[in-house]
Backbone:
């Protein structure tokens, strides 16, 4: 490989990018803008769930019970309904997600020490939200019912509240949250966004830079020149890696300064790891450019590829341990998952080379493999 | 009178024929670009297939490390309850340091610590028997799920012990007031993930394709100068733009039909409780709306690379924040307001409404109206910019 030729291609490429003002600006504006929007918007917490009540009992006990739900910060109380038919309509509309139905004689039965069955209707359309809401409902119900039982036991055995509680619930699970004690969503989201945003832009930059020349015919200059395939590809890779790496730094600064995410690790680990990741995602773009002949195709393939990898196979939205079968395997074969672990490790856990060195090696391996594949697929002679 | 009318008829017919020819030209261009064509087929088939099997929003195989300092029968029984499919026991930690290391490396997500004397405290029933759970919350949702399942397991285990203890003290647990909350899941009683994920993926793919392809097609004509040829031909700017939208709408309708009838219904039993005619009509409206946005974008871009970045700037927030990947109610108010101009926000309600909730126009009319208004505005904006650039 002749470094001077690589430099020439890279330099020319860089010039081209800088001259296209709009493109140049967009390449640097896009990542921080997405970071800001997603930093506020992307959350896994389910809150303010629209909630309605049908109280057919209207006793002190039923009001007391319903209050447990109404006062919860997870639910957004939208008022009482009178008939199940209304609940039907509002659930079909998606305007209400949870309806609690308290039957008649609820208070009476409970006072008599009997078991009461009540119903909660939950919209299961968005499965993840439905499951979370189910969890909320169960735990609120358990707390409310536990209170009632404790009062009954206190009365009948003549004991204090603490004792009644031990009697009814002898096991206590004390949870200690490590790395993110207050379960602040943004602490996890901001670092994950570095992974997410860098896989969006880098492949696009790299893929288009080659295919543009294919489409305009400028690539015939390359075919006819003495430059080798490897030199040409390396020259094309360099500017995209540089831009994406700079963007990575900007995103890192935004995460720690603007979103106050803790960075417990060392830059001596994070910087090289990010560099390898950026090479890896840019190489993915080059690989796309080897397959696509038009910019339209290159654009479409790299955009959708990035969206799919980032959304489904990175572990950001669905943990990789929750994936099954082919998807689980696929996640292991794509780079996003490794960098997701890396970036969270460097931010929240403060671990470095010793613990996550292997992930960096895997990423480097991916990059090498993809670059090799691009090199093998790239022809200096058009096929007949 | 009648001759004027006949002339109008001929004019209209020619106008339609021109539009048809242009649309066929667009479709041919797609078909000829093999890489692109194969990819479009993939996003409506293979991608939907993968998404149907990919996701479990329940806790699944959370890696659990145990440190049993008690070794009583009660401790063993409690540990035994942390089982598949929620937890996967990966062994015992020798020391607290080893447990922390396992969490650091990500080998374990949860560590369950049972202190010495747990069994004895439980038997005496004078104070609560405490176990500790260390949870890795660097991935916040996973950590939250793991802790809530663990607490539920602890509560169940404790509840059974409590029943025995109460009987000893002369209280029949059956005579205590109890509330059983029978939750019923509407629209998806078994909470089949594939019903949600295949639809959500289809909507995402459709949005990217409808936004990107017409925009790229228009900019390509601009870049190559072929747009000039079209403009000097007897075609109206509206026809040139509309043909691109029309071809993409056709592709989207066909793709939706394929993924619905070939993948989603036969393989994942996704129901269609509402009217399919309505679904396809509104899909066409959505494709039209998003394609209008694509064309508007294309008028701001000078080359395909710019289109790519602009599309990302729009499409990622639209996909991520319209309500399938993030619970909409949890977002801050200003962002909810901002996202009310996203057509996907309404289309999500429409598609899930028709397929899963069996909703009709009577329920969905406000979403339809909002989407149509956005579509008309975007298309008008695109056309106005286009006319100004090339008029």
Residues:
């Amino acid at each position: 490989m002749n470094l001077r030729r690589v430099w020439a291609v890279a330099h020319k490429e860089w010039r081209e990018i800088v001259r296209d003002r709009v493109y140049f600006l967009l390449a640097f504006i896009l990542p921080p803008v997405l970071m800001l929007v997603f930093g506020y918007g992307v959350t896994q917490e389910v809150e303010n769930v629209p909630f309605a009540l049908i109280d057919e009992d209207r006793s002190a006990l039923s009001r007391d019970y319903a209050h447990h739900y109404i006062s919860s910060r997870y639910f957004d109380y939208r008022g009482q309904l009178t008939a199940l038919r209304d609940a039907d309509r509002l659930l079909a509309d998606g305007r209400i997600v949870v309806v609690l139905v308290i039957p008649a004689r609820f208070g009476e039965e409970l006072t008599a020490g009997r078991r009461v069955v009540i119903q909660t209707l939950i919209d299961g359309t968005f499965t993840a939200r439905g499951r979370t809401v189910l969890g909320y409902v169960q735990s609120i119900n358990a707390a409310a019912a536990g209170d009632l039982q404790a009062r009954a036991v206190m009365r009948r055995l003549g004991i204090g509240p603490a004792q009644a509680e031990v009697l009814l619930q002898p096991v206590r699970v004390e949870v200690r949250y490590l790395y993110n004690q207050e379960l602040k969503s943004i602490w996890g989201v901001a670092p994950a966004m570095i992974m997410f945003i860098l896989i969006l832009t880098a492949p696009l930059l790299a893929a288009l830079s080659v295919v543009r020349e294919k489409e305009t015919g400028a690539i015939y200059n390359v075919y006819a020149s003495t430059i080798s395939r490897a030199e040409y590809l390396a020259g094309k890779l360099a500017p995209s890696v540089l831009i994406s790496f700079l963007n990575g730094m900007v995103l890192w600064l935004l995460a720690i300064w603007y979103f106050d995410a803790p960075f417990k690790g060392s830059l001596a680990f994070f910087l090289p790891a990010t560099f390898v990741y950026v090479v890896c995602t840019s190489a993915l773009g080059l690989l796309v450019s080897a397959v696509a002949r038009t910019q339209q195709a290159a654009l479409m393939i790299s955009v959708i590829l990035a969206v799919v990898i980032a959304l489904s196979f990175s572990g950001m939205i669905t943990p990789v341990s929750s994936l099954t079968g082919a998807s689980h395997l696929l996640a292991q074969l794509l780079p996003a998952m490794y960098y997701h672990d890396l970036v969270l490790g460097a931010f929240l856990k403060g671990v470095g080379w010793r613990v996550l060195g292997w992930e960096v090696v895997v990423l480097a391996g991916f990059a090498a493999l993809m670059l090799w594949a691009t090199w093998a697929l790239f022809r200096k002679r058009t096929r007949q | 009178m009648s001759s004027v009318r006949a002339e109008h008829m001929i004019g209209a017919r020619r106008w339609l024929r021109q539009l048809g020819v242009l649309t066929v030209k667009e479709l041919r261009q797609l078909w000829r670009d093999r890489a692109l064509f194969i990819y479009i087929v993939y996003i409506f088939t293979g991608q939907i297939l993968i998404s149907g099997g990919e996701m479990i929003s329940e806790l699944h195989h959370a890696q659990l490390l145990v440190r049993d300092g008690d070794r009583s029968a009660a401790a063993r029984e409690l540990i035994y309850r942390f089982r598949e499919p929620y937890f996967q026991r990966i062994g015992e930690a020798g020391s607290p340091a080893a447990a922390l290391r396992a969490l650091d490396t990500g080998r374990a997500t949860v560590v369950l610590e049972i202190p010495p004397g747990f069994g004895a405290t439980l038997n005496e029933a004078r104070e609560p028997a405490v176990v500790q759970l260390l949870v890795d919350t660097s991935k916040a949702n996973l950590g939250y799920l793991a802790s809530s399942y663990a607490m539920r397991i602890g509560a169940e285990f404790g509840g059974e012990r409590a029943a025995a203890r109460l009987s000893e003290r002369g209280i029949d647990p059956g005579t205590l007031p109890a509330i059983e909350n029978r939750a019923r899941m509407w629209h998806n009683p078994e909470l089949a993930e594939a019903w949600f994920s295949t639809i959500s993926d289809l909507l995402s793919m459709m949005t990217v394709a409808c936004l990107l392809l017409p925009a790229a097609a228009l900019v390509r004509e601009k870049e190559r100068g072929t747009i000039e040829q079209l403009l000097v031909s007897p075609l109206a700017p509206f026809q040139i733009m509309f043909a691109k939208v029309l071809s993409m709408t056709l592709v989207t309708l066909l793709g939706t039909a394929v993924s619905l009838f070939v993948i989603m219904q036969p393989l994942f039993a996704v129901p269609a409780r509402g009217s399919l005619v309505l679904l396809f009509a509104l899909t066409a409206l959505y494709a039209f709306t998003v394609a209008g946005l694509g064309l508007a974008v294309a008028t701001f871009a000078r080359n395909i690379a710019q289109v790519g970045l602009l599309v990302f700037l729009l499409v990622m927030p639209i996909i991520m924040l319209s309500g399938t990947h993030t619970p909409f109610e949890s977002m801050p108010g200003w962002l909810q307001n901002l996202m009310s101009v996203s057509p996907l926000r309404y289309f999500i309600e429409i598609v899930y409404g028709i397929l899963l909730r069996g909703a009709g126009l009577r329920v969905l009319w406000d979403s339809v109206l909002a989407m149509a208004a956005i579509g008309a505005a975007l298309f008008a904006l695109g056309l106005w910019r286009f006319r100004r650039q090339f008029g």
Remarks:
- The domain at 62-172 of chain B is CATH 3.40.1710.10 (abc type-2 transporter like fold).
- The longest helix of chain B spans residues 193-224.
- The beta strands of chain B are 62-68, 87-92, 110-114, 129-136, 178-186.
- Chain B touches chain A through 135 residues (CB under 8 Å).
